Amino acid sequence: EIVLTQSPGTLSLSPGERATLSCRASQSISSSYLAWYQQKPGQAPRLLIYDASSRATGIPDRFSGSGSGTDFTLIISRLEPEDFAVYYCQQYGSSPPAWTFGQGTKVEIK
Amino acid sequence: EVQLVQSGAEVKKPGESLKISCKGSGYSFTSYWIGWVRQMPGKGLEWMGIIYPGDSDTRYSPSFQGQVTISADKSISTAYLQWSSLKASDTAMYYCARGGLGARPDYWGQGALVTVSS
């Protein structure tokens, strides 16, 4: 079973700043099957990035994902007020089908 | 438009049984996985299990194996998550999500809050 470790646990930044979130896997993730989600209080998770670097439909280009193997990164180039939320990375795959989530990184207003 | 609509909030007592649902529409229900995710109050997302409605192939996270049952009725495009005997620790928000290419979750239900309290 793959374990995903996100860092940092909390990121305190100001609007306009750049946010860099990390997700490390306990073993290599095949086909770069790694996604990033944003979750705000009282809402379902919102898919931002899939396959490590592909933006989901409607996601602004200030969000970008990169990485392969065991190390992945989500960058928010310039934080907007609506970007302050919790972010989760997730591994998925179909052989066998299984999902694993990281513990989350909270991006808060400094 | 792809939609997953979950059943409403539930308040139950410890020891009671419960079955919550997730109805898919706008796509071929039998051709995509449906997974279930738990989020306890103030905590992160936990994968519980996944089902392929086309042939009812079901897989569980080791953490949830034997604790819940996942099923689907393809005739009404609905997946289910059920408990035979609820505990207070089952209090959480439960989400269903569609597994697309590579079983990647691409659409999510709105969530169903389950509260278990005596």
| Helix/sheet category of chain A | mainly beta
Average residue-wise pLDDT of chain A: 95
The H/E string of chain B reads EEEEEEEEEEE
Strand content of chain B: over 45%
How confident is the prediction overall: mean pLDDT of chain B?
96
Radius of gyration of chain B: 13 Å
Q: In whole angstroms, how far apart are the ends of chain A?
A: 36 Å
Order of helices and strands of chain A: EEEEEEEEEE
Report on the structure:
The complex is a heterodimer of chains A (110) and B (118). With 110 residues, chain A is an all-beta fold. Chain A contains no helices and ten strands. Chain A has strands spanning 4-7, 10-13, 19-29, 34-39, 46-50, 54-55, 63-76, 86-94, 97-101, 105-109. In chain A, strands 2, 4, 5, 6, 8, 9 and 10 form a seven-stranded mixed beta sheet that branches. In chain A, strands 1-3-7 form a three-stranded antiparallel beta sheet, with no helix packed on it. In chain A, β8 and β9 (97-101) form a beta hairpin. The relative contact order of chain A is 0.33. By secondary structure, chain B is mainly β. In chain B, the strands form two sheets. In chain B, strands 2, 4, 5, 6, 9, 10 and 11 form a seven-stranded mixed beta sheet that branches. Chain B has strands spanning 3-6, 10-12, 18-25, 33-39, 45-52, 57-60, 69-73, 78-83, 92-99, 105-108, 112-116. The mean pLDDT of chain B is 96. In chain B, a hairpin with a 5-residue loop joins β9 (92-99) and β10 (105-108). The interface between A and B is medium-sized, with 26 and 23 residues.
